[in-house]
Amino acid sequence: MSMRLFKLINTASVVLCSFVLQPVYGHDGDKAHSHGVRAVKPAEMYQPTPNPDRIILTWAGDPKTTQAVTWRTSTEVTVGFAELAIAGGGPDFAVLSETYQATSTALKTDINTAHFHSVQFKGLKPGTKYAYRVGDKTNWSEWFHFSTEKDSAEPFSFIYFGDAQNDIRSMWSRVIREAHSDAPKAKFIIHAGDLINHAQSDAEWGEWFGAGAWLNAMIPSVPSVGNHEMQKGEDGKSHLSHHWRPQFTLPQEDCPHGLEETCYTLQYQDTLIVSMNSNEMLEQQVEWLDGVLSKNKLRWVVLNFHHPIFSTAKDRDNAKLRRLWKPILDKHRVDLVLQGHDHSYGRTGLETPIATPETIGNVPTGVNQVDMFTGTVYVVSVSGPKMYNLSPSPLMQRVAEDTQLYQIIHIDGDQLHYEARNAIGDLYDGFVLEKQPGKPNRMTEVSPEVPERRRLEKSPKKEASAVPAAVAK
Ligand SMILES: [Fe+2]
């Protein structure tokens, strides 16, 4: 073949390839359908296989010496295993691995039946980096790392998200990934409820696990239950998502009976994290919380639950929750309360008295009755794309509408640094709390990088339609 002919054929094939592979761009989404590509159905996309997926770390014990891992397979895998070794710089670490057999649970969902497997690693060395993998001795996951908590004092960070809930794969994944790139060494992730929209939708849980992907297998999650993890049963009562307990291995003891794995505590360094269930059995949690906080000797107390004590919208008030729980928070001077549910952002300060007549009436005699004396900071946040409008409230020192946010909280001795960042990483809100002996925390606000984001004033009619129909509750 002459060089000229070769060039001609080569040029022609490039042109042909360019033509064949030309992507279809258009303003009309229907063009993609007319191109003949089928839509992948959820049942296919989220089909379990013998290969482990939805791998997630949680704690059901002491973070110094234990670590729990849970994962999913198809029902072909009847016995699950995890291998654990102290991680090493070279590939030979796995030679010394120990094998743990999982506890397995079958879960029939709306689109499939799967097996969920759970292992608790115990007797671990504090302050140690471990490697683990999960599987069935034929199919294995990759090796993941986690580190146990040090038994000496160490500053640490954690991440907190408000509701993910909607368009999780499409629009929430960027937020969890941005948060991780900002705080890659975070020790755990708090989810303040409404992780998904429909409690029993396996596809939505698949989206949630897909968004977190391998991060979930490396950084433990601390989830609390939102109203969207509850669903009405045939008995007319609200029940916890069938997915919750098989897919998260959480503490089952030392909680009010009936709230196993939805109401629990976690001690990390000098901080007590209390995750509560604001959907049900509110009265039973009052005494429990009072007992937990009365026994507590740790310096910082952070609570997380779904429904806000102080809502960012007038028509979303949770008066019963506030009446029952806030007196206990006041009594023990809880430092920080992390919440969701309102699909907007609001954060209280310490300058404004935020006790209400009903909480004042319930605060025991001798206890300071306003938050400027208790020092408690309340936060409502949202990480997913569903957005509600908020009602201006003098309680909130910083608010946002139409903004996806993540929060990074850093605790170092007597100081707690709080940052709320938007989905592109801009500092939206920040403050520092400092412990003062015998007094409420001192709060110093940090100048944000972006102005407060509010919706333009609209007529009530237009405001109602500001929530996109696709994500409206
Ligand atoms: Fe909610």
Mean pLDDT: 88
Which class of the largest domain in CATH terms?
Alpha Beta
| End-to-end gap | 68 Å
Helix-strand category:
alpha+beta
CATH architecture of the largest domain: 4-Layer Sandwich
Name the ligand types.
fe (ii) ion
Spatial arrangement of strands, main beta sheet: 11-10-9-21-22-23-24
DSSP strand content: 25-35%
**Structural domain count:** 2
Taken from the alpha-carbon principal axes, the silhouette is globular
Could you give me the name of the CATH homologous superfamily of the largest domain?
A: Metallo-dependent phosphatases
Determine the fraction of residues in helical runs and give it as a percent range. Answer: 10-25%
Q: How many E-type strands?
A: 24
CATH topology of the largest domain: Purple Acid Phosphatase, chain A, domain 2
Task: Pick out its properties.
single chain; 473 residues; alpha+beta; Purple Acid Phosphatase, chain A, domain 2; 2 domains; seven-stranded mixed sheet; 11 helices; 24 strands; 28% strand
Can you offer a commentary on this structure?
- By secondary structure, the chain is of the alpha+beta class.
- The protein has 2 domains: 46-147, Purple acid phosphatase-like, N-terminal (Immunoglobulin-like, Sandwich); 156-200 and 223-236 and 246-471, 4-Layer Sandwich (Purple Acid Phosphatase, chain A, domain 2), CATH 3.60.21.
- Helices cover 22% and strands 28% of the residues.
- The strands form 5 sheets. The chain has a 7-stranded mixed β-sheet.
- 42% of the residues are buried.
- Mean pLDDT is 88; it is low at 5-32, 356-370 and 461-473.
- The site of fe (ii) ion has 7 residues, from loops.
- Fe (ii) ion (FE2) binds next to loops.
